[in-house]
Structure formats: C-alpha cells, structure tokens
Design a protein that fits this description.
The complex is a heterodimer of chains A (245) and B (182). Chain A is mainly alpha-helical and 245 residues long. Among the domains of chain A are: 96 residues, no CATH class; 64 residues, Structural maintenance of chromosome 1. Chain E (Arc Repressor Mutant, subunit A). A 3-stranded antiparallel β-sheet of chain A has the order 1-3-2. In chain A, a hairpin with an 8-residue loop joins strand 2 and strand 3. Chain A starts with 23 loop residues before the first helix and ends in a 7-residue tail after the last strand. Chain B has 182 residues and is α+β, with helices and mostly antiparallel strands. Chain B has 2 domains: 74 residues, Arc Repressor Mutant, subunit A (Orthogonal Bundle), CATH 1.10.10; 92 residues, Orthogonal Bundle (Arc Repressor Mutant, subunit A). In chain B, 41% of the residues lie in helices and 14% in strands. A 3-stranded antiparallel β-sheet of chain B has the order 3-5-4. Chain B has a two-stranded antiparallel sheet with strand order 1-2. In chain B, a hairpin with a 2-residue loop joins strand 1 and strand 2. The chains are: A mainly alpha (245), B alpha+beta (182). At the A-B interface, helix 1 and helix 4 of A face strand 2, helix 5, helix 6 and helix 8 of B.
Chain lengths: 245, 182
C-alpha cells in the first residue's frame, strides 16, 4: 500500500493553508513528507524551523495547539544540542516521544483514508426510502390557559438576573498593628512560630496583615522566615539587633 | 423460493434499515438459525445478478441496497441523495474510537494533537458513536465506542472488517512499547 499523504505541493513554494490540516501533527507529517526525511531520524532543527515558518502566518483561530507543538519542537531541538558523554547508555533520544506520536498519527491517517473509501462506496448504494422518524413520541399538543402562560412568564422574568452591584470597600488591613505585635514578640524571644503572630482563629484580614508585616520585616532584614516543609507553619527568627525604626 | 425465503424477502423489503438475524427470527419464532441462514442465502442468490438491488450483509444484519452502478442516475434525479461526507476530523476521531474503544476523550485528543470535544459531540449527535461506559480514574471519564450506525455508513458487516493494524504500512507499536499511556 502506498503511503497516502495530504501533500499538496504548491508551485510557488511554501504556501500552505493551515485550514487544510486537522492539527499540528498533520502539519508536521506534511512537512516530513515534503522534505522526504526519515521520520524515525528526524532532522529536528530543520523541521522545527519550517514548522515555525508556517505557523508564523497562522490565522490565530487554532493557534494554541500549534504553538504548543512549536514549543515542544524547540525544546527537543535544545535538548539535542546538549552535549552527551560517549557511550552514555542512559541517554534517551529527546525525539522518541514525538516520533512515537507521529507514527501513531500516521497510522490514523491511513485508517482515515480507508474509512473514507469505505464510506464513499457505501454512499453509492441506497437503502429503501428515507429513515423512519425516530421512535420517540412527538410532544403532546400544547394546551395552556392564560393563567399558566402568565405564571410561566413570571418564572422566566424571575430568572433574569438583577444587575450586579459591587461595593468596593478599602481593605481594612492593619499592617502597622501586626508589625508592632511582631516587634513585641521579637523582644521576648529569638524564634517563634506563625501561630504566635496571628493566634488561633485569626480572620483573613489578620492573616493577610501579619503576612505582609512579616514579608516587610524580612525584606528589611529584621527577621528571617523559614518553612520546614510545604504547608508547615512558618518559623520566624530574629535576624539582627533591632534597628531603630 | 421457499415460503420462509419469501417471508424474509418481504420483511427486508419493508424495513428501511438492516435487520439482524434475531430480528428476522422473530418473524417465525419456530425457525432455527440454520433454516434462517439457508433462507437468507436463497434470497441473496435470487437477487444476485439480474436485479437492480441486492441483499447486502451490513451492520450485523441484512438490507436491500441498490447496486452501485445506479448511484449516479438516482442521485442526479434526486430520488435519493448521497449522504454528506464526513470531515477529516470526524474520520480521524472515528478511526481512533473504532480501534481503541472504549476510549475517553483525553486519549483521542492526545493521539490527534487537538481538542476533539466538539467533533465527538457531533458524532454522538449523528449516532455514530455512543457512551459505552465510564473509565476508572479521575472524574470517571466517559468512554466512547462505535454504534451499528457506524458500520452502516461504512457498509461494514462488523468491526472485524476494519483493516488489521498490522496490515497497514505504518506499524503502530514503536520499538519501545513501554510508554503506552494505558
């Protein structure tokens, strides 16, 4: 079986209409066939450059999928440039995953050709008449009186959302207060925990105020902040003799 | 033709879709499968040559279809119209679902390299694929499979008639099969 490819060589060179491709893999396959290169030993640099050249003139409606592929190609290209030691058995060809996907996709394209041919042959043979209407019963004829209609209208009107009004209030953050509290704690102890600063049952505003205060103090070099592990309570440590504020 | 063959002929003529063996059996509940198949062969033979229609085995059933050579004239006269062709995207998606069923949307997306949600919705609408089960794992994704309608529009008897993957010129399994995302 010959390899069916969607190649449409344009006389003027690389005028490729993106709409004719069903996705970035399709476009890649097209470039590979066009260049007549070995799919299992992709000249990634060349192919990546061409891919980029094509999508540069892209109508942006399908961009995300193509851009993702462009990024992938560039990453592989970069990985290929990394030096590797001779006889390095650990080295994994950065192209391997892409080649696997391309081969898989190429197979799908071949199946598509097969299915299209089968459907075309089938379309040449007609069955008896048109399909019978679907078996579900038609909806019963509508019978409503005026009250029902008004009630229905009311329900619809009730669903219309009120215009949303937002009141913007200044955030009542109390960073000064939190800073003062931290200074008080620093006077007492060299290290203390996050919970010492905010206390149990702190409101979101308290937490934010304390957090901003701590960041500010850390920036000034007054304290150092540490977190033993992700999501663990912060440990605050006095860093240097307190400078006069 | 035998009385049973004539009965089948009448039923197949009346129906506008393929009738399965079970459906045909309900015409004469006493009849065994062997007799039924023999009668079908008889009908098939009757319509083999000098008729404009033939008995086709399709979508796990049997249906009278016109012969291909009359398609052009019938289509031109608009007594019946050729169905709309499926888009390449639809065919790609159908191919993946046919070979990987039951298969979830994510896997279809992965193989095609593009989002396939809208295409799958259209195939569902046309009755070519259906939700067959839910997968394991996060969110219990819907898994799709093909329908008898799929076989019908392709003129296939059953899924066995699809080409085997090893018959294709491209080998699906790469040298390193360890990374299958199953």
């Amino acid at each position: 079986m010959t390899t069916p490819s969607p190649v449409m060589r344009d006389q003027s060179g690389f005028v490729i209409e993106l709409e004719q491709f069903s996705g970035p893999l399709d476009l890649l396959l097209h470039l590979i066939h066009e260049e007549e290169v070995d799919i299992t030993d992709l000249p990634i640099s060349k192919i990546a450059d061409q891919f980029l050249a094509v999508i540069r003139d892209l109508a942006l409606n399908q961009a995300a999928d193509y851009l993702e592929m462009a990024a992938r190609l560039l990453r592989i290209k970069a990985q290929m440039l990394l030096p590797r030691r001779l006889g390095d058995d650990e080295w994994e060809d950065p192209r391997a995953e892409l080649v696997r996907r391309l081969l898989e996709y190429q197979q799908i394209r071949e199946l598509v050709d097969w299915l299209a041919r089968a459907a075309a042959v089938r379309a040449e043979r007609f069955g008896r008449g048109y399909e019978a209407p679907p078996p579900d019963a038609p909806p019963a004829p509508l019978q409503i009186d005026l009250n029902d209609l008004l009630a229905a209208a009311e329900r619809v009107i009730a669903l219309i959302p009120e215009p949303m009004l937002h009141r913007v209030v200044p955030r009542p953050l109390n960073v000064e207060g939190a800073t003062a509290k931290i200074y008080a704690l620093l006077d007492e102890r060299e290290t203390f925990g996050w919970l010492d600063v905010v206390g149990p049952g702190a409101s979101i505003v308290d937490v934010l105020s304390a957090f901003i205060a701590l960041l500010e103090l850390a920036k000034r070099g007054t304290v150092s902040l540490a977190q033993p592990e992700p999501f663990a309570p912060m440990v605050i440590r006095r860093e240097s003799p307190r400078e006069a504020a | 033709m035998s009385p049973l063959a004539k009965l089948l002929e009448a039923a197949l003529f009346a129906a506008s879709r393929p009738l399965t063996l079970e459906e045909l059996a309900s015409l004469e509940p006493e009849t065994g499968e062997a007799a039924l198949r023999a009668a079908l062969t008889e009908v098939h033979a009757t319509y083999s040559d000098d008729h404009g229609v033939e008995l086709a085995e399709i979508a796990e059933g049997w249906q009278f279809l016109t012969r291909r050579e009359y398609a052009e004239a019938i289509d031109r006269a608009q007594f019946a119209l050729r169905p709309r062709r499926l888009s390449p995207a639809a065919l790609e998606t159908l191919a993946i679902i046919a070979y990987r069923q039951p298969v979830g949307r994510l896997e279809v997306d992965e193989i095609r390299g593009v989002d396939s949600g809208a295409v799958i919705d259209k195939l569902l609408e046309r009755g070519l694929v259906e939700v067959v089960t839910r997968g394991e794992g996060l969110g219990r994704p819907l898994l799709y499979g093909t329908t008898p309608q799929f076989l019908e529009i392709l003129g296939l008897k059953d899924l066995e008639e699809l080409p085997r993957l090893e018959e294709l010129s491209v080998a699906l399994r790469p040298p390193t099969p360890a990374e299958e995302p199953e």
